[in-house]
Every structure is written in structure tokens, then in C-alpha cells.
């Protein structure tokens, strides 16, 4: 999972973008409306063999307080078949999930998050943005504001695990074979996930 422990601490070798994948963005750059980035294996972190990470800049409106923004994320995710599971921060150590894809909707504050493992990119995740991580993708919190909070959700029928060591052959096979969700967690049917993940699958 990505939910932070009580102290609110939070877990690659990037490959070149292909015709379906936008260029990576650093925490010093400006995140576009959305971005797709695929990562190859990084040290012990497998990352996903084909699917890119997606970043959504304006996933929900920020006209309300943090609780209302979180509830807006939760309604959106639930409606699109990604039942929300928790609200919290992000672990500060590298980890990945071998049994579920994950989406993190930022309801408050901001954080610098390393995606893709030890050699991955550091991106800025701020309130209103969302980060979609295919199974196997390493991630960790580098730093965060005191009020940083994300909503974590997973496709219906997928239960997350927390992996902090190299994947076994069985885990790699499970990551590669995990079904695509039927809907984009933010955009719904026909959304960005459908267009990008199905292009890579």
C-alpha cells in the first residue's frame, strides 16, 4: 500500500518516451494537463513492463476545503470503479504493489514524490492532482508540506500488498498479467488510462 504509517513518513531506470508517452517532468518544471511516463527496472524495483505512470494536473476542483476535496476525489473514484480505501500520506521509503494498480488523489498540501524507484523521477504532487501507478511501480515521498494528504484507491477486485524487496518470478508474472481497469479513475470510460494503457498493453 501507499498509506503512511503513524509518523506520516512515505516508496528505476527510466526508459525513453515512445510515441505514446510524453516526456518526463521534474519537480522544478511545470506539469502539463496530463503526462505519461514509462519506467524500466531500477535496482530491486521492477516497475511495470509496459504500462506508463499517468499524472493528472487538474483532476478535481479546489474551490472547497481539504475534506470536501477528498470527498470529491472519493466520489469520482468510486463512480469510476476505483473504490477509495484510505486518506493519509505516502511512505518515505521505496515500495511497490504487485497485486493492484493504484491511484493517489492529492486532497491537500503538496509533496515531492519519487516515482520509478531509486533511479526514477521526482515529481511535484499538489492538491487537485492525481498520480496513477501501474502495479510494480516504485514510489516514495521525498518531502511534503505538513498538510499533505492523498486519497488512495484501487480497481474493484484488486487488493494491494506492500513490497520492499526484489520481485520473484511469480510476482513479475502477476504484475504483467494484472487486468486493466475498465475505466480511467478520473476520466471514466474512454479516459486517458484507456487511451494510453491499452496502447501499451
Which band does the percent of strand residues land in?
25-35%
How would you name the CATH homologous superfamily? Jelly Rolls
Question: How many domains make up the coordinates?
Answer: 1
Give the CA-CA distance, first to last residue: 24 Å
The SSE string, one letter per element, is EEEEHEEEEEEEHH
CATH C-level: Mainly Beta
Mean pLDDT: 83
Please outline the major beta sheet.
6 strands, antiparallel
Q: Over all CA atoms, what is the radius of gyration?
A: 15 Å
Please state the second-level CATH architecture.
Sandwich
Overall structural class, as computed from helix and strand content, comes to: alpha+beta
Instruction: Extract low-pLDDT stretches.
Output: 1-33
Task: Please give a quick description of this structure.
By secondary structure, the protein is of the alpha+beta class. 16% of the residues lie in helices and 25% in strands. Strand 7 and strand 8 form a beta hairpin.
Amino acid at each position: 500500500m501507499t498509506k503512511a504509517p503513524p509518523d506520516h513518513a512515505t516508496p528505476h531506470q527510466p526508459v525513453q518516451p515512445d510515441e505514446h508517452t510524453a516526456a518526463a517532468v521534474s519537480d522544478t518544471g511545470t506539469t502539463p494537463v496530463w503526462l505519461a511516463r514509462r519506467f524500466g527496472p531500477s535496482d530491486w524495483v521492477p516497475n511495470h513492463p509496459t504500462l506508463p505512470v499517468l499524472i493528472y494536473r487538474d483532476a478535481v476542483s479546489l474551490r472547497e476545503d481539504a475534506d470536501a476535496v477528498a470527498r470529491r476525489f472519493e466520489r469520482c473514484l468510486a463512480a469510476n470503479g476505483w473504490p477509495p480505501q484510505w486518506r493519509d500520506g505516502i511512505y518515505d521509503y521505496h515500495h511497490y504493489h504487485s497485486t493492484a494498480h493504484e491511484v493517489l488523489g492529492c486532497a491537500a498540501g503538496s509533496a515531492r514524490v519519487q516515482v520509478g524507484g531509486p533511479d526514477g523521477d521526482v515529481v511535484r504532487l499538489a492538491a487537485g492532482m492525481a498520480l496513477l501507478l501501474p502495479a510494480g511501480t516504485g514510489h516514495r515521498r521525498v518531502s511534503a508540506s505538513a498538510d499533505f494528504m492523498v486519497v488512495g484507491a484501487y480497481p474493484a477486485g484488486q487488493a494491494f500488498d506492500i513490497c520492499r524487496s526484489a520481485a520473484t518470478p511469480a510476482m513479475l508474472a502477476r504484475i504483467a498479467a494484472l487486468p486493466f481497469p475498465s475505466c480511467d479513475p478520473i476520466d471514466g470510460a474512454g479516459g486517458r488510462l484507456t487511451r494510453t494503457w491499452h496502447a501499451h498493453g
